[in-house]
Specification:
The protein is mainly β and 662 residues long. It has helices at residues 69-79, 147-154, 168-171, 185-197, 212-218, 271-274, 362-366, 394-400, 467-476; strands spanning 6-20, 28-43, 49-50, 60-61, 88-89, 93-94, 102-120, 124-145, 156-158, 165-167, 219-240, 253-269, 291-308, 311-325, 330-344, 347-358, 370-373, 416-419, 428-439, 447-463, 512-513, 516-536, 540-557, 567-568, 578-588, 591-600, 603-604, 629-630, 633-645, 648-654.
């Protein structure tokens, strides 16, 4: 069976207050206040599962009294136990009969903005604001399974003194063991005596056989609280140089300003959740240091020429912003420079070059490591099946890392790892170039045509690699001295590890998935737009807008050891080469008829590298898809609206008139 997520209840309450008072044109105080409360209840669809994830005791025994005799004998024969021999066995199960994990959430948002603004001189204006915001969230979850109690409860035996089915730990002190995978072993050990005393045996075989008493024993409620607060102080001054001097094209436009921003975040859970004793994702207490940034910016608009032969307008613009961040980021600088040239009225050319930066946020930097599970089966690059693929140095690196010859361990489909933030991150940087033109032909009033070419490159993109990418990148590098090999540990042996690991196996929960600065993105394309507006005889109006996007490049560079190897996104699902849209409306009197069209060119159903050459590399798997491309698709929407007065209108429409599948 399968459980689907649902959100059956959502209530929202909001209050807004706006006010301003113009003392004079040069002094106008204003205020904005907002309060929003959202209460929600829903399910994330994650039923408890047992796939051997919960450590060496996540097993069952053939002497379990809940097993039917026929099933017991079948399991013994399948494993190869001798007559009368008892032992452990393993099977996978989703415990849908325990129900989903339900969450009741209350979120309160407060925001207060106050400031002053005004105008002075001929063309000058200013504004100064303080923005205080705070959001709190309280989430109560039900349906969590206490893993320590689950492991004690599935280890059931028959009490020889009474003949009743009991937990083994009740009669055998050696079976009273705390959960080995707890994030807080001391907390787990402190709970053990009570968990053993209250232990109720669990019947996991078959749907609906878990008793109400066993459900109450293993299910636990949990609570999470979080708070995020932000303070922003902002001030700017805008105007021009008309009172002092002018250029041949007019006065110089000026904007100056500064901003200070401070953010705080806190998240806590109750002790049971923070200890890692439940099956829900472990979110440790998180209260990073306060984050703040101070910025100063300036913008200039230089009108060099105007109303001259071949220079109806020539304007140069420039902008710069310097920011200083707390921590290792330090000081960064962003800038842009551009020009606009209109040789004649109705024709304009433009060009702009810019550098942008993005600093990592609090979560990317300070998020503590928490429990997670891989969604796909893990292929160990050092196993027999995989060691011959990858780079030429893969096998040598595996041996240098202590993986024994013949290593062939198979990991469970939900491989356990931890993920969180990386305090060593630095900022992302991007460079962009846009070149364009706009035409407003005098012969066709109301028509505007424009076209722009864009080229954007982003470096040091903050990206969290997948578990599989971390392992492959570690051993396919020239040496083991790389950032990926530092993200996990292998059990060196001898014997079994603390979580029953075999020599060479990745230590349980040792692999860390954290964001890294290693990826790059490159995007190029052309945007073409045409807009037309015309008044019709009798008071009607026609509005039409056409947008066509031609994507020339959309590549990701995600392999740190081969930085020039691109992963082409263009032509894959969601990234067509051609995208076209038409939006039209015709109004006459109180009636307006609207029509929208959207066209997407063909796209591959999977990775485009599988079916066509990329960078001269041959198709990687030409037979990967029975159907290689989703065909080009056009969608049509229609709408009619009737205006019945200043406060009432009615409309009717049909989206996707031809019922095209996505």
């Amino acid at each position: 069976g399968k459980l689907f997520p649902y959100a059956p209840d959502l209530k929202r309450y909001s209050l807004n207050v706006l006010g301003h008072f113009a003392v004079s044109e040069s002094f106008e105080p204003f205020v904005e206040a907002k309060y929003v409360r959202v209460d929600s209840r829903g399910s994330n669809g994650s039923a408890f599962f047992s796939v051997g994830t919960w450590g060496p005791r996540d097993r069952y025994r053939t002497d379990n009294p809940f097993l039917q005799p026929q099933a017991r004998e079948f399991i013994r024969e399948s494993i190869g136990f001798a007559d009368g021999q008892e032992g452990p066995f393993f099977f996978r199960r989703n415990f849908n009969d325990l129900g989903p994990l339900m969450q009741n959430n209350r979120r309160d948002t407060y925001r207060l903005v106050g400031g002053v603004r005004g105008k002075f001189g001929r063309n000058w204006a200013y504004e100064a604001t303080a923005n205080l915001a705070r959001a709190t969230s309280r989430t109560r979850s039900t349906g969590n399974v206490n893993i320590q109690r689950f492991l004690l409860g599935i280890d059931a035996v028959r009490d020889p003194a009474t003949g009743e089915i009991v937990c083994r730990s009740r009669i055998d002190p050696s079976a009273a063991v705390a959960f080995e995978g707890a994030a807080d072993p001391a907390f787990a050990a402190a709970q053990l005596a009570r968990d053993v005393a209250e232990c109720v045996p669990i019947n996991p075989f078959g749907e609906g056989n878990i008793s109400p008493a066993a459900r109450r024993y293993i299910l636990a409620d949990g609570a999470t609280r979080s708070m995020i607060a932000q303070t922003v102080l902002n001030a700017f001054l805008t105007g021009d140089s008309a009172d002092w001097f002018t250029l041949p094209g007019g006065p110089v436009g000026i904007a100056l300003g500064g901003e200070y921003r401070r953010e705080r975040f806190r998240r806590t859970q109750d002790p049971l959740l923070e200890s890692g004793l439940t099956h829900s994702t472990l979110l440790p207490a998180f209260e990073p240091p306060r984050f703040s940034v101070g910025e100063a910016f300036a913008e200039l608009r230089l009108p060099l020429l105007k109303d001259r032969r071949a220079f109806e307008e020539l304007t140069v613009t420039g902008a710069g912003r310097i920011a200083h961040y707390d921590g290792d980021i330090g000081t960064v600088f962003a800038w842009s420079a551009g020009a606009q040239w209109a040789p004649v009225d109705g024709l304009r050319f433009r060009i702009n070059r810019s550098r942008s930066v993005r600093a990592p946020n609090l979560f990317e930097t300070y998020q503590p490591l928490g429990q997670n599970f891989a969604s796909t089966a893990l292929r160990d690059p050092c196993s027999i099946q995989s060691i011959g693929s990858g780079s030429d140095g893969r096998e040598a690196n595996c041996r240098a890392d202590g993986v024994p010859v013949g290593f062939n361990f198979s990991y469970p489909s939900s491989f356990a790892y931890v993920d969180g933030g990386n305090p060593d991150l630095h900022e992302e940087r991007s460079d962009s170039l846009t070149i364009g033109a706009a035409v407003q032909p005098a012969a066709i009033p109301g028509l505007v045509l424009s076209a722009d070419y864009y080229d954007i490159k982003v470096r040091d993109v903050i990206t969290s690699p997948s578990v599989q990418s971390i392992l492959d990148s570690c051993y396919d590098s020239p040496t083991l001295d790389n950032q990926f090999c530092n993200l996990f540990e292998r059990y060196p042996g001898p014997g079994r590890g603390p979580n029953n690991e075999v020599p060479g196996q990745i230590v349980h929960n040792s692999l860390r998935v954290i964001p890294l600065n290693y990826a790059a993105l490159k995007v190029r394309g052309v945007d073409v737009e045409a807009a037309y507006r015309a008044a019709l005889p009798g008071g009607g109006a026609l509005n039409a807008r056409v947008i066509w996007t031609l994507a020339l490049q959309n590549d990701s560079f995600l392999d740190p050891e081969h930085p020039d190897r691109k992963d082409q996104n263009l032509l894959e699902l969601g990234n067509p080469r051609h995208a076209f849209s038409l939006d039209m409306s015709l109004g006459r009197g109180p009636v307006t008829v609207g029509y929208k069209l959207r066209y997407l060119s063909k796209m591959s159903v999977g990775a485009i590298e599988n079916i066509r050459s990329v960078q001269g590399r041959g198709a990687e798997d030409a037979d990967a898809f029975a159907t290689r491309y989703n065909p080009a698709t056009t969608y049509h929407n229609a709408r009619v609206e009737v205006d019945l007065g200043p406060r009432l209108s009615i409309y009717a429409g049909v989206d996707n008139v031809t019922d095209r599948l996505p």
